[in-house]
Structure formats: structure tokens, C-alpha cells
Amino acid sequence: MLTNIRYILLTALRDWLFAALMIGIIVCTLIAHMLGSTAIIENQEMTLAYTAASARIIIMIGLIVFTCFHIRNAFDTKEIDVFLSRPITRATLVFSYWLGFATVALLLVVPTIGLVAIQGLLSKSGFVFWSISLLVECWLVVASALLAAFMLGSAVTSIMISMGFYVFARMVGFFMATTQQSGLHGVGAFPLEGVKSITTFMPRLDSFAKSEWLIYGLTQRHDFTLFMTQAVVFIVLLICVTIVNFRYKQF
């Protein structure tokens, strides 16, 4: 297991993942400062919000692309076969992959939260919750990308499915609010019920890493319970589904 984790970290270094994403985050931070300086009031608040939102998106996209391409390359180069030739179960192998990518996510999140911190903390408690939420969201996204990469035979398809899952999960709150609005003319009951059914089984990533926490703090305490519960449930679920799928995969 430790060998696989070290190999994933070395691959991330070899592919310049950390450097590329950090450069992207720094560039977005500079752009956020430029946009924030144009505000007449609440300059720092706008800068923090832009920096946090852009850093979040860059990290998620980077993790999805890296995870999907790494797993597909492992299948194509028979790396998976080499691991399975050793006394290791398929469940352990899948879990070691998730741990490896989760470690990569941790190494990306730590400098990111440091970059946000040096811009000035308007709410220390909100910053702590935002940092924890960003990390567990990365772990959940890694689990979803891992499942897509193991199930699908194409890295590009895996990336598209993972990104679609992420975007849809980020918009679940919007969809739920829309279905609860009265007076939706021209929309039948069946489409609305279908949307409600889908959103019931999707994680609400809009409740993770809210930029407003950095400014106003955690105004509602149940927000912490909400994103932590979702993270634990869906990470475990996605890893278990990946393990089940991998056990029935033939080589």
C-alpha cells in the first residue's frame, strides 16, 4: 500500500502537477487582487471570495484529470496486473489508490489555504471550517474520479463524467430550490419528480467550502454537520462501489 502511495506522489511530481496547479492558483489570486482593487467598498472581501472560488475549481479539475489519466495509464501499462501479482487484495489496491490521491489532494490544499491566510483573515473560525471542507471535498471528488476511471475504458470519458458529476453536485441546491418554486409553467410533474429523485441521491457540494465562511464565519452550525456527514457517506459509498466493480473486472 505504501509503495503505491509513494508511486502516485512521484508521478504527481514527475507530471508537474503541484507546480502547474500552484502557478494557476497564484495567477488567479493576482487576478482576484486586481478585481478586488476595483471595488469601491469591501475590497478584501471580494479578493478573498474570488481567490477561494478560483482555487477550489482549479484544484478539483486538476485532481480529476490527474486521477483519471493515472488510473487509465495503470491499466494500459499493466501496472494493475503487477500489483495484483503480489499478495494484495483488490479492495486494498483500490483503497491504496484513494489514499495516494487523497495525499496528493492534501499537499495541494495546504499551500492553498496558506495563500488564502496571508491575505488576511476576516473570520478565523470560518477559515478553519472552509479549510476542512475544502479538503474533504477534494477527497470526495477523488473518490468519484476513481470510480469513473475504474469503470470506464477511456480517460477522456472518465474525466467528462467526473466533471459532469461535480458540476451537477455543485448545482443540486439550485435544482432543489427550482423544483420547490410554484408557478413553473410548461413543466410537467414527471420532470420535476425526476429532478427531485436524482438530487436526493447526489451530494450537495454547494454546501462545501463556501466563500462566505471566510468573510462572515459559519453562520449556521448545522452546515458543518451537513458537509461532514455527506463527505463520510459518499466517500465510503464510492470507494465500496469501486471495489465491487473492480472485483468483477476481468483482465
Describe what you observe in this structure.
The protein has 251 residues and is mainly α. The protein has one domain. 79% of the residues lie in helices and 0% in strands. It contains eleven helices and no strands. It has helices at 2-14, 17-37, 43-76, 79-84, 90-117, 124-151, 155-170, 172-179, 189-200, 211-216, 222-247. α2 packs antiparallel against α3. The protein is globular, with a radius of gyration of 20 Å. The two termini are 21 Å apart. 33% of the residues are buried. The model has no long low-confidence stretch (mean pLDDT 84).
List keywords for this structure.
single chain; mainly alpha; 0% strand; globular
The number of helical segments is 11
Give the termini separation: 21 Å
What's the order of the H and E elements? HHHHHHHHHHH
Number of DSSP E strands = 0
β-sheet strand percentage = under 5%
Number of domains: 1
Percentage of residues in helical conformation = over 70%
Uncertain residue segments: none
| Form type | globular
Largest sheet report: none
Mean pLDDT: 84
- From the helix content, strand content and strand pairing, which structural class follows? mainly alpha
Which value, in Å, is the CA radius of gyration?
20 Å
What's the structural blueprint in terms of helices and strands?
Layout lengths: L1 H13 L2 H21 L5 H34 L2 H6 L5 H28 L6 H28 L3 H16 L1 H8 L9 H12 L10 H6 L5 H26 L4
Helix pairs in contact: 1-5, 2-3, 2-5, 3-5, 3-6, 3-7, 5-6, 5-11, 6-7, 6-11, 8-9
